[in-house]
Amino acid sequence: MLKTIIKSNRFLVILIFLVALVSCDSKQIFDEYKSLESGSWEINTPITYKFTVTDTLAKKNLFINVRNNNDYEFSNLFLITKMSFPDGNVMQDTLEYDMADKKGAFLGEGFSEIKENKLLYKEQILFPTAGDYSVEVFQAMRKNEEIEGIQKLKGIIGVGFRIEKTK
Q: What burial class does residue 99 get, using C-beta atoms within 10 Å of its C-beta: 0-12 exposed, 13-18 middle, 19+ buried?
């Protein structure tokens, strides 16, 4: 009897599961990850995201998502971002994020040696015009008291960019 009920409701169970899965991320407007196959991020090598903005009235939150593993040697991360607007203007920011706590344990989500950090880039922003935008993300790490940047930053295995609706 129970097997008959389960078989007859299998389609309904699968449908409910799929609807629940899709609706879990209702805030997402844009979300793209790029893997760094070599496990290192070269200086002056941007990771670029292109997206189209149609809604200029609703505020949005922007995030940079970083996946790192135990090869990452630092407790922080410096990034440079360049956002290009449809009219040709470019906005550049230098950002610093904590990647580990005071005891040296990596921050972020994850059960294995890989941690994922959702780092706030811009909060409650309005895009001024509709059109095609791009964001370039560069690593800008340097060792203490050294002028030259780290040529190949080890331990960063993926970088993402995400746009979310605000509440």
A: buried
Token pair 């995201």: residue: 49
The residue type found at 8 is S
Q: How far apart are CA 119 and CA 160, in angstroms?
A: 10
CA-closest candidate to residue 48, choices 131, 163, 159:
159
- Answer for the pair 62, 27: CB distance below 8 angstroms, yes or no: no
Domains contained in the chain, CATH given = 27-165 (2.60.120)
Structure tokens at 36: 């760094």
- Calculate the dihedral angle through the C-alpha atoms of 99, 136, 23, 57, rounding to the nearest 10 degrees: 120
Note if the pTM is more than 0.85.
no
The predicted-structure confidence for 86-136, as pLDDT tens digits, reads as follows 999 999 999 999 999 999 999 999 988 999 999 999 999 999 999 999 999
Our separate counts of H helices and E strands in the chain read: 2, 10
